[in-house]
Design brief:
This protein is of the alpha+beta class and 418 residues long. It has 11 helices and 17 strands. The strands form 3 sheets. A 6-stranded antiparallel beta sheet has the order 3-2-1-6-5-4, with helices on both faces. Strand 5 and strand 6 form a beta hairpin. The protein is globular and about 65 Å long.
Length: 418
């Protein structure tokens, strides 16, 4: 190795402070102890660590499956209580904005910190301190991130977190199957954001969605299986499994449809089917491609207005042996949003008995969009407003998925701070 490079590297290492500060020790000990910690001991572990920095009245809130409430997780050392409505509450503000919220009281500060696993919104960590300074806030944000990671990891080993999010309402077997197969219902990166929601939350059966970000391509699928109950859930499961297998085999969009169609026909025969919309977005260029298998056309939102319906040639639903679909292409502008949905959203009836329809959906989207911050907030608010207009009734599965393309690059996140 060049002598100058060696001395430069050694000099940099000699200057680096590798000593362990208080905050690093606290987070490190929490992480070290959490590796083999049984899930039910996460609560007392978190409460104990927070007490070491002078915190008290610690609560861990988890988002319920309907995305309306923050439900307190019960555990030794944690403060319980009633669920908190997300909209209009200070814990809810932290959840929606993904930023800490300080609730100043006479002689103390109640902190509400979003629990973020990556950018998936898990819930909120709340605690009380006498005062909060800049160093406290930095430590608390990192602590909340570690707690979120622990919850997501331990969720694979226990039903406790899942049952808390159900808040006592039973989920159908079909819905259990669907939710087990779903990706996180929100994702945010510098280049693209995704948020989705399925209704009726505890009875959904045939609708499903999926997305992954592979390098610079976002792959998305929204499907709607015929029928209701377990049969619809099984149709959806096979279709989504075939979609993922074909996607991971790196086939083209048109061939992906044919692979899904063959798998459905092999298992169920010609009488069962799913409609579907499969999309690919290049997050660097903003080019969106899609195929339509009997599904409602997505919409493009620009500046809070619906400016385009992505009409395209369609083929038969998956399972019917349709013709090879046409791949359609559109160039998005930065900050465009694409709204995909299933027909249960627009074929439901309003309180008056009139069918809801796509124009009413467009009107609602354009009203709600300026009132929201980010795609996750938009999907939640849109779902609540649409359900209210339908008299809080969802007789068929209904799915919403919003993609926002922001463009640019994420390379700066891989550059270390020196």
């Amino acid at each position: 190795m060049d002598e100058g490079r060696r001395s430069g590297r050694n000099g940099l290492r000699a200057q680096a402070d590798l000593s362990e500060g208080f905050g690093e020790r606290l987070l490190g000990q929490l992480l070290d102890r959490a590796h083999q910690m049984p899930p039910h001991l996460i609560a007392p572990l978190v409460a104990e660590e927070i007490s070491r920095i002078g915190g008290r009245d610690t609560s861990i809130y988890l988002q319920d499956h309907e995305q309306r409430l923050l439900v307190p997780f019960e555990g030794r050392g944690l403060t319980g209580g009633d669920p908190v409505v997300i909209d209009g509450s200070q814990p809810g503000e932290a959840f929606l904005t993904m930023r800490p919220v300080q609730e100043h009281r006479s002689d103390e500060v109640r902190m509400h910190l979003p629990l973020l696993d990556g950018t998936e919104e898990v819930g909120v960590l709340s605690l009380t301190l006498d005062t909060v300074e800049e160093n406290d806030l930095r430590l608390l944000r990192r602590l909340a991130g570690l707690v979120a990671d622990m919850i997501v990891t331990k969720n694979n080993y226990t039903d406790d977190f899942f049952l808390t999010r159900c808040r006592g309402e039973p989920m159908s077997v079909a819905a259990e199957i669907q939710y087990k197969l779903l990706p996180p219902l929100s994702m945010t990166t510098p280049q693209v954001s995704v948020a989705g929601l399925l209704e009726p939350t505890y009875k959904v059966a045939g609708d499903s969605l999926d997305y992954v970000l592979n390098k610079d391509v976002l792959h998305v699928a929204v499907i709607d299986a015929m029928g209701h109950g377990l049969n619809a859930a099984m149709l959806s499961t096979v279709a989504m499994g075939a979609y993922r297998h074909a996607r991971r085999s790196d086939v083209e969009l048109a061939d992906l449809y044919r692979f899904m169609d063959a798998a459905m026909d092999e298992v169920f025969g010609p009488e069962d089917f799913v409609t579907g919309q499969m999309m690919r977005l290049n997050v660097t260029t903003g080019q969106l491609q899609w195929v339509n298998a009997g599904h409602p056309a997505p919409m493009v939102l620009r500046g809070h207005r619906v400016v385009q319906r992505l009409e395209s040639p369609t083929t038969l639903p998956v399972g019917f042996g349709g013709a090879t679909p046409t791949v359609s292409t559109v160039q998005l502008r930065r900050y465009d949003r694409v709204l995909a949905f299933t027909d249960g959203l627009v074929e439901e009836h309003k309180i008056s008995g009139e069918q809801f329809g796509e124009q009413r959906l467009i009107d609602t989207v354009e009203y709600v969009s300026p009132l929201t911050d980010g795609v996750n907030h938009l999907v939640r608010r849109l779902s609540l407003d649409l359900k209210r207009q339908r008299g809080d009734v969802t007789s068929d599965d209904a799915t919403l998925l919003v993609i926002e393309w922001t463009g640019g690059t994420a390379d700066h996140l891989a550059a270390p701070d020196l």
